[in-house]
Amino acid sequence: MTHIADDHAVIRVHGARENNLRDLHVDIPKRRLTVFTGVSGSGKSSLVFDTIAAESQRLINETYSAFVQGFMPALARPEVDVLDGLTTAIVVDQQRMGSDPRSTVGTATDAHAMLRILFSRLGRPHIGPPGAFAFNVPSVRASGAITVERGTATKAVKQTFSRTGGMCPRCEGRGSVTDIDLGRLYDADKSLDEGAITVPGYKAGGWNYRLYTASGFFDPAKPIRAYTERELHDFLYREPTRMKIEGINMTYEGLVPRVRKSLLAKDREAMQPHIRAFVDRAVTFTACPECGGTRLSEGARSSKIAGVSIADACAMQISDLARWIAGLREESVAPLLTALRHTLDSFVEIGLGYLSLDRSAGTLSGGEAQRVKMIRQLGSSLTDVTYVFDEPTTGLHPHDIRRMNDLLLRLRDKGNTVLVVEHKPETIAIADHVIDLGPGAGAAGGQVCYEGTVAGLRTADTVTGRHLEDRTALKEKVRTPTGALEIRGAATHNLRAVDVDIPLGVLTVITGVAGSGKSSLVHGALPGRAEAAGLEVVAVGQEAIRGSRRSNPATYTGLLEPIRKAFAKANGVKPALFSANSEGACPQCNGAGVIYTDLAMMAGVATTCEECEGKRFQPAVLEYRLGGRDISEVLAMPVEGAREFFGTGGDAPLPAARRVLDRLADAGLGYLSLGQPLTTLSGGERQRLKLAGHLAERGGVYVLDEPTAGLHLADVAQLLALLDRLVDAGKSVIVVEHHQAVMAHADRIIDLGPGAGHDGGRIVFEGTPAELVAARTTLTGEHLAAYVGAAAG
């Protein structure tokens, strides 16, 4: 007889309406591996993360008292009618780890904390507690008098306090120091009157410029090269000084500290392209000369175990560090050694043994960051937990995907429910249950198109089903390079004095297992060589798009600027009226479109603004029209509709807007609304939006880092067509990629390896994809041969 408790075998989701989900109904089997498929933007993340995982977290938070909940983030209940059968959800997403330079692989996984305890117990000479080995803790000394009250008497007592920390005092635990190349700030042969300052935003005649020309500290007609030592100091480094310039009270400050505050303090990704390019040229990061880049003080580096300091241990490849820890025999710290060995072995097992603990967390790719987060789960004894993964194969070579699949199956076999959002056929193939969402993206998605087995999906008439067996064939004819970038002696990270000629004028794909040195070659050695050759590099990485709920595709790509000006010109008013963040904003909701009500420890409530009905603009602004539409109607249009509206023969021909819209359509985003908040876009949509933004830049060399991340099988063909158009337009395109379709479509392949970490860093193949397949001498060659063999079959 079946026990009543065994009836709860599914997670029931009925009437889900989060984001673009359309009253969705689905039953997800528990203790099985369920893969969610569908084109980018079809609603997979809205169902798995924003509905199931979010409600699980909210219900767990509600088990705490109201007092405790007051200190926790308030989570709103997802838009869903019924959500039954939930278990505790552990989310392992692809959010990049913090970019704080003091955040490392070691600090993110507790491995560094355990090492600190180990060295504080066994290190000789003994220098202090675990904090003495922490590069986040500065050494502090203080002395003074304190007043002690005893009964009716008071007495002054002298006290001395000291704390030993491991932070390097020179770089403050960052490991590197920044230096500004003064030659990039000004032209020494020119005077200020001749426009000597070359910093963006310091245009001759502007206020930033007049601050220096009218300061009176130097002659603006004299070339900077002729300045006296005092004049040069006042120009570059003078402390903030209040003075009256042209009748206005202002603060004068030397150019170097002013540039540091105004430009270098900003997040690099949030900068405009021309400012970002200036910062990349003007600022150099060098290893701290005092600590050698270890981040640690001299005392922390002096204490050793068997001749190895904590700096040496953190710099080791993790697989080597695991062997060193395994060789330590000390009964007094046996439990600590066991826990540390388990953590380090988990790194190796998950395919990250090539990392080192001192690697900055911000330099990890999305796939690496996700696998680092998985380490905590590998040895867990918890069962009946729901694990939620967001494309766990991102950044993995086909050779490594099998290992990731084994880990997912292991978690399932322990009695857990495993939910995976994925595009790769190799991971879809191991699913017990598949839920395919679609049929399209955005407003055209949000429905369940198929539910069942993988075999059933292959025959299903859905976008995923039709493309599941897609294989890109090798090119019959490859392009001939027009030149080459000669890289000699590249030794960044694990590269071993690599000599390679990267061809120009063609599509080149850099391949190799994770950790083989691909990014080190492309981001470490290539930009400097390209600049020396007079070529401008446009790099499109995996960094997340930064933006609030007020940001949208129109603001991110600069599309809104020509549209605002066109509205202003057509109606004889100011452009600022057509910005929901400026003068045209609805006064009731300040241009947000919704009113947020804070309910303390309860979830806040967002209600549509009654004044503007969610349109974000003042009613008076909506009276102004362009081509028969107001600004809110234009922002509600999809990209494809806006292309017609602003195109030649459209209701409001506007070439500047049409060019931006064409780039968005080329990147496969024709369905996006111009005013859709960036916070509602999927990972794949954000990646392509970023690519569309970079297409406007006039670079000769495009470097793309895994552009297929987050892309559905059906979208890969469109990406390949876009890469072809870039090359045919005279660009050189270099792609770091694991997807076999991109490899097969390349003109040239450069394969690094043969392994990861110190087993990699060498060029193991250079040539065409056909030559790689014929040779089959590398892991990449073997997998590509199997892939194109399936295509031929």
TrEMBL record:
Q: Domain ABC transporter, which positions?
A: 169-464, 478-779
Q: Where in the cell is it found?
A: Cytoplasm
For whether the record's keyword set contains Membrane, the answer is no
Which is one Pfam family of this protein?
Answer: ABC_tran
Which terms are listed as keywords in the entry?
ATP-binding, Cytoplasm, DNA damage, DNA excision, DNA repair, DNA-binding, Excision nuclease, Nucleotide-binding, Repeat
A GO MF label: ATP binding
Describe the family membership recorded for this protein in Swiss-Prot or TrEMBL: Belongs to the ABC transporter superfamily. UvrA family.
For this protein, the record's PANTHER family field holds: DRUG RESISTANCE ABC TRANSPORTER, UVRABC SYSTEM PROTEIN A
**Identification of the protein by name:** UvrABC system protein A
